[in-house]
Write a structure and sequence with these properties.
- There is one protein chain.
- Strands 2-1-3-4-5 form a five-stranded parallel beta sheet, sandwiched between helices.
- It is α/β, with parallel strands linked by helices.
- It contains 13 helices and five strands.
- The protein has helices at residues 5-12, 18-29, 31-34, 39-45, 50-59, 65-74, 92-113, 116-128, 140-151, 164-172, 190-201, 239-259, 261-277, and strands spanning 132-135, 158-160, 179-184, 206-210, 223-226.
- The longest helix has 22 residues, at 92-113.
- Helices cover 56% and strands 8% of the residues.
- Helix 4 packs across helix 5 (50-59) and helix 8 packs across helix 12.
- The radius of gyration is 21 Å and the shape is globular.
- The N and C termini lie far apart (47 Å).
- The chain has two domains: 5-74, Winged helix-like DNA-binding domain superfamily/Winged helix DNA-binding domain (Arc Repressor Mutant, subunit A, Orthogonal Bundle), CATH 1.10.10; 113-274, Rossmann fold, CATH 3.40.50.
- One of its GO terms (biological process) is carbohydrate derivative metabolic process.
- GO terms for molecular function: carbohydrate derivative binding; DNA binding; DNA-binding transcription factor activity.
- This is Transcription regulator.
- Residues 122-262 form the SIS domain.
- Pfam families: HTH_6, SIS.
């Protein structure tokens, strides 16, 4: 699983400064030519300094400009953007097509952004935790509830509650032997960040699922799993990002369940038996 430079630029783009966005815009519009540019040539084309280019590539996760160019040359072609904004005149069929294309694009881009080492670390952290607690508010509560519902099928001790006050109380009682999985699209929700800061104070390991790689929330976490999605409706939440985050959660569940196959199979059998008895 390789990180794609184009995907990383798009993931960080919302948090870029005006100057960084100018560099990003030029790079995205000239992908074929920048691979042949020296750092001085690119800086000149972007009307900026070589130091600014160097800071830019380090900001998106590369050690230097050469490392960035090598990545562009060796990774698979960036996921093609299928995303189009929904317009007032669009028919139901056209809106549906754009919605599906947005979800497909989000899944492809998120897959390219995920780091295999961090995924393996997340699975190991979850597997050895005395308890796994899920945190998410607003739209992110959907992903948290999905994770809780899935992981109940494993032998792990899990907990989740949608209310902020109760989530904070759960956070207060957690220890460094447990694991917190926190979901936030922006990574800047004040209440979610407050929970994360409390967990950080108590040295509770945190896995963050977010669309913002350098948000306040992401900076507090040991492991950051980043979803990438372009908005298709300015008046609505980023629904494609939600699809990508649900898929990240499902991937974590399946990886842990596979690692603990025997224990998971036993729990699933017991759960199914208990549920089936209610229909008799």
């Amino acid at each position: 699983m390789k990180n794609n430079g184009v995907v990383r630029i798009k993931a960080y783009y919302p948090s870029f400064s005006h100057g960084e966005q100018k560099i990003a815009d030029y790079m995205l519009a000239n992908l074929d030519t920048i691979q042949r540019n020296t750092i001085s040539e690119l800086a000149n084309n972007c009307h900026t300094s070589t130091a600014s280019i160097s800071r830019f590539v380090k900001r998106i996760g590369y050690s230097n400009y050469r490392d960035f160019l090598f990545n562009l040359a060796t990774t698979d072609k960036a996921p093609s953007s299928l995303t189009e904004m929904i317009e007032q005149r669009d028919t139901a069929a056209r809106i549906t097509e754009k919605t599906f294309n947005g979800a497909i694009n989000a899944l492809q881009s998120t897959k390219a952004m995920l780091n295999e080492r961090q995924l393996n670390q997340a699975v190991a952290l979850i597997s050895k935790a005395q308890r796994v607690t899920f945190f998410g508010l607003g739209g992110s509560s959907i992903v948290a509830l999905n994770g809780y519902h899935k992981f109940l099928r494993t032998s792990l001790d899990c907990q989740y509650h949608p209310d902020f006050d109760i989530q904070m109380m759960q956070a207060v009682k957690m220890t460094k032997k447990e694991c917190a999985i926190i979901i936030s699209h922006s990574g800047e929700n004040n209440q979610t960040v407050a929970i994360a800061r409390r967990l950080h104070q108590q040295r509770v390991p945190m896995i963050v699922i977010s669309s913002s790689p350098d948000s306040s929330l992401a900076q507090l976490a040991e492991i950051r799993l980043i979803s990438v999605a372009e908005n298709i409706n300015e008046r609505a939440e980023n629904l494609s990002s939600l699809v990508a985050q649900l898929t990240i959660m499902d991937s974590l569940f399946l990886a842990v369940a596979t690692e603990q196959a025997d224990e998971t199979a036993k729990v699933i059998d017991e759960v199914n038996q208990a549920i089936n008895q209610t229909y008799k």
